[in-house]
Design a protein that fits this description.
Elements: H1 3-10, E1 19-24, E2 36-41, H2 46-58, E3 63-66, E4 72-74, E5 79-85, E6 93-96, E7 99-103, H3 108-117, E8 120-121, H4 133-139, E9 142-143, E10 146-147, E11 152-158, E12 164-168, E13 187-194, E14 196-197, H5 200-217, E15 224-227, H6 237-243, E16 250-251, E17 254-256, E18 263-266, H7 272-290, E19 299-301
Parallel strand pairs: 2-5, 3-5, 4-19
Antiparallel strand pairs: 1-2, 6-7, 7-13, 8-14, 9-10, 11-12, 11-13, 15-18, 16-17, 17-18
The structure holds flavin-adenine dinucleotide (FAD).
Flavin-adenine dinucleotide is lined by residues 30, 65-72, 86, 104, 129-132, 134-136, 138-139, 141-143, 181, 187-188, 218, 220, 224-226, 299.
Length: 304
């Protein structure tokens, strides 16, 4: 891997604030945890994404794609190689009758606001999920009985050969917090979301109700990555953790939230090591107490 040569070539088509060296991942994750990424690229155009991949592959630089970092735990030594952050700078969206076509970096909150302002129903469930559209497609994000699977029509991706192709909803293999994107090297570029014409006041009321429930039940004033574990079939992870007597349990500054045992929160200076140790202890104790094996929902990346 030749980072210096790659950096020089990248500066040929990226602005200085679009290519950052040694960038702390704490600034880019909702957990506020993580060591530095060697390079971070923040594209604003499809062409920049394609060109960046060409340069990085040519110099054998490993690449990780991220959205808003709300489901990521970055280890303490950070990320070797490059992170391509597809976020607000790549977030153009257009309403097309009862549908929305949007770039992957748009935040779900902005997307659901756009749907509301166009009196389009179907995205209310997503209004409080703090990720991008690309992250939500990858994770098949969902809440309150809705999930991305219900609204996605097609997605355009950049594949491993650096060519753009369109995947129909049936090709996305959307399941509980999973999609074909997760175990591939594909990058979500755009998505087409099919909604229904609805009533502005009803859509707004539903968003307000979901917001109220989140504020009441989730520890939103602390950094976290949302639910730390996937929901095991037939159970709730938070209840299993609480029943094992782990509410409030701490490793360093990582804590099982007192408000919602399914969340691990950062009390201030938690390290990735603290969180991973807490995850392991929770898994072991829940297994002992209930026989259920918890699987982390949060994606753990980077160098230990
Ligand atoms: C307070 C809080 C509440 C939450 N509530 C919910 C909830 O109700 N429901 C829910 O499902 N989730 C929830 N989450 C988790 C998180 O917001 C979702 O998983 C979200 O979809 C992640 O999006 P992101 O853009 O932040 O992705 P990131 O965390 O940046 O990345 C997640 C994964 O997606 C990949 N990825 C991201 N963008 C792209 C792209 N353009 N192309 C290819 N791969 C990509 C990354 O490589 C990584 O594997 C919550 C998180 C927090 C902090």
């Amino acid at each position: 891997m030749n980072l210096d040569k790659a950096y020089k070539e990248l500066t040929g088509f990226l602005q200085p604030d679009q290519i950052l060296k040694n960038e702390s991942m704490k600034k880019h994750t909702s957990f506020r945890i993580g060591g530095p990424a060697d390079l971070m690229i923040i594209p604003s155009e499809t062409e920049q994404i394609v060109k960046a991949f060409n340069v990085l592959r040519e110099h054998n630089i490993p690449v990780m794609v991220m959205g808003n970092g709300s489901n990521l735990l970055v280890r303490d030594k950070g990320i070797r190689g490059a992170v391509i952050k597809i976020a607000e700078r790549y977030s153009h969206a257009e309403v097309k009758y009862d549908s929305i076509q949007a770039q992957a970096g748009i935040l779900l909150s902005a997307l659901s606001r756009l749907a509301l302002n166009s009196s389009l129903a179907g995205l209310e469930f997503a209004s409080g999920i703090p990720g991008t559209l690309g992250g939500a497609v990858t994770m098949n994000a969902g809440a309150y009985g809705g999930e991305m699977k219900d609204v996605l029509q097609w997605v355009s991706v950049l594949d491993e050969d650096n060519s753009i192709k369109v995947l129909d909803r049936n090709q996305l293999e959307l399941g509980y917090r999973t999609s074909i994107i997760q175990n591939s090297n594909m990058v979500v570029l755009e998505a087409f979301i099919k909604l229904q014409k609805g009533d502005y006041d009803q859509i707004k009321a539903l968003i307000q109700e979901y917001t109220r429930r989140r504020q009441e039940k989730q520890p939103l004033s602390y950094p976290s990555a949302g639910s730390a574990f996937k929901r095991p079939v037939g159970y709730y992870a938070g209840k299993l953790i609480q029943d094992a007597g782990l509410k409030g349990m701490r490793v360093g500054d990582a804590q099982v939230s007192e408000l919602h045992s399914g969340f691990i929160i950062n009390l201030g200076n938690a390290t990735a090591c603290d969180v991973i140790e807490l995850i392991e202890q929770i898994k072991a104790k829940v297994k002992e107490n209930s026989g259920v094996e918890l699987q982390p929902e949060v994606k753990i990346v980077g160098e230990a």
